[in-house]
Amino acid sequence: MSQHSQFTLLGKRRFLPYFITQALGAFNDNLYKNALLLLIAFSGIIAEEDSALYTNLAAGLFILPFFLFSPIAGQIADKMEKSRLIRSVKLLEVAIMLIAAAGIITNNMLLMMTLLFLMGLQSALFGPVKFALLPQQLHKDELVGGNALVEMGTFLAILGGTITAGLLFDLSAAKYWIAAGVIFFAVLGYFSSRFIPTAEAGDPQLTINWNPLTELVNTLRNARQQRAVYLSIMAISWFWFLGASYLTQFPNLARDHLGGNPQIVTLLLTLFSVGVAAGSLLCEKLSGHKIELGIVPIGSLGMSIFGIDLYFAISSLNISSDLSALAFVQNADHWRMMADIALISLFGGLYVVPLQALIQQRSDEKMRAQTIAANNVMNALFMVGSAAFGIISLVIMKLSIAEYFCVIAIMNIVVVGYVYSQVPEFALRFVIWMLSHTMYRVSHKGIQNIPEEGPVVLVCNHVSYVDALLIAGACPRPIRFVMDRGISEMPGMKWFFRLAKAIPICSPKANSEVYETAFRRIKEELADGQVVCIFPEGKLTQTGEIEPFRAGIERIIAETPVPVIPMALDGLWGSFFSHKDGLALTKTPRRFWSRVGLTVGQPQSPDSISAAGLEDDVRNLLKTNSY
C-alpha cells in the first residue's frame, strides 16, 4: 500500500462495497432529514408559527438515538460478525424508508417525525460497526488512507443529500419524488452491503447490557482507561463542535451578511464539505501511509488561524444585493471569506483523520466498537453543546456571527492546547514531523523489522544531536532513548527529551548515581514492553566514522534478555548538528535540508549479543545503504 495512492482501495472488494454502503447511508440520512425540514418550512403542512418548533424538534429527534443507543450498538458490533450486522442495519433502513415514504405522501407529520427518530436509531446502530470494521479489513499502512476516503465520502454524501433534497423539493409532485428517492437509495445501500466481506466478531462471548443509561456510563468509563484514546475522542468531538458551529450559522450568515440568496448557503456548505474532503485526502500524503499524530497540531493551528481571519473577512464585507451563487463567486471581494471557509475545513480534515485512525488502532480489539460508540456519544453531546453555546453567544450575549466565529477559533487554541499538554505524544510527533519535512528528508529500509509489540532494544551509530528525533519519526512505536546527560539537558531541547521520557546517562566516574539510575530505568521500560534505543558509542562521532561500542549493551541484555536490533544512520555527517569541521551547533549551516537514510537490521537473539558483534552489524548496514 505504501507505494500506491489511497484511491487504489476503491478497486478492492474489502473496501469498495463498504465505502459505497456508508456513503449511501450518509446521503440518504441527509436527503430525508433536509427534505423533511423543507416540508416543514415551505409545504404548509403545519402552521407557519410552529415551523421553528418542528425544525428544532427534528434536529433533536435525529440526534437523541445517538445518546440512547450508541453504547448498545457498540456491544452488538463487538459481539456479531460485522458484515452480517451491516446488512441487518441496512435492511432496517429499507423498512424505515418504506414507512417514511408513506408519511411523506400522506403529509403525516407525526409519522415523518417518528421515522426521523428511527433513522437516527439506524445511524446510531451503524456508526460503531462502520469504523470498527476498518482495522479488520485494511492493513496498518492503509488505515489512514481508508479513514481519509471515508471522511471524504461522508462529507460529500452529506452535501449531495442536502442538495438533492432541495432539487427534488423544487420539482412538481415533489413529495412523490422524495418518497421514491429515499426508498431507492436505501435499497441501493442494502444491495452494496451484500458485497462486504466477512469480518469476525471482536468478542463473540460478550454479554450485552440492554440498559442504555448504565451502558452509557460503562462505555464512557471504559474509554477513559486509555488516556490517549480518550483524549483523542474528546479532540474529535471538539471538531464536531466546531463543524456544527459553522454549519449551523451558514444560513444566517448568508441572510445577514451575504445578500440573502439561498444559493449562497449551498455554496458555503459546498466549500466546507469539499475542504474537509480535500484535507482528509491530503492526510495520507503528509503522514507517509502511517498514523502520524504530528499533523494533528498543524490541522488545529490552521483551523484557528483561518477561523480568526474569517472574522476580519466577514467584517470587511459590504452586504451585496441578492446575488446568484455564480455572481457571488465572481466578485473578488468574497474570495478571502470563501478561502477562509475552505481552509478551515481543509485543516479540519488534517486534524480529525489521524485521530480517528488512532482510536481504531489503539483501542482494545474486543472493545473497539464500544470505544467508537463512546466517540459517537461524545460527538453528539458536543454538537448539542455547540447549539447551546450558539444560543448563549448570539442570542443572549448578542455577538455578531463574525465575532462568534472568532470566539470559537480562539477557544480552539485553548482546547487543543490542553489536549496536547495531556498527551505529549502529539507535541513530540509535531516537532519530529516538522524536522523530518524541513531540514531532513528521511528514507528508511527494514523498518518492519521492529516488532509491533513487546520489548526490544535498538542500537544505532551516533552522528548528530538530532539522531533520536529522526529515529523516532521513522519508528511507528514510541521509543525511550538512552542519551548522554549533556545532550538531554541541552537548552531548548531539555523539555522535549523529558516529554519523550528520554533516559539520561553518563559515565560512572562522572556520576555513579545517574549511571545506575539509567540502567534501572532501562530495565523498567523493557519490563513494561517498551522500545529502548541506545547509542553504544556513548558520544557523537568526531570523525564521521563509528566509534567503538561500549559494553553497556551487554549489561542491559544480561539483566533483561530481549531481542536487539542494529540500525544505521547515514547522511547526517556534515550537518549543523554534527561535529564535522567544529563543534555541533556552532557553525553556519551549509544547506537547508539533507537526505538521510535509516537502515534497520534483523532482530538478534539475546543469547548472542556482544558489543563488538553489534558494532560490526551496524558497520555492515552502513555499507549496504543506497539512499
Automatic annotation (TrEMBL):
Chaperone among keywords: no
Keywords, alphabetical: Cell membrane, Membrane, Transmembrane, Transmembrane helix, Transport
Record bears the keyword Membrane: yes
SMART domains recorded: PlsC (SM00563)
Entries under Pfam families matching the protein: Acyltransferase, MFS_1
Primary location class: membrane
Transmembrane segments: 31-47, 53-73, 85-105, 111-134, 146-168, 174-191, 228-248, 264-283, 295-314, 334-355, 376-396, 402-420
Protein topology in the membrane: Multi-pass membrane protein
Chain ranges of the Phospholipid/glycerol acyltransferase domain: 456-572
InterPro entries in UniProt: MFS, MFS_trans_sf, Plipid/glycerol_acylTrfase
Subcellular location: Cell membrane
Record protein name field: MFS transporter
Organism whose genome encodes this protein: Thalassolituus hydrocarboniclasticus
Top-level taxonomy: Bacteria, Pseudomonadati, Pseudomonadota, Gammaproteobacteria, Oceanospirillales
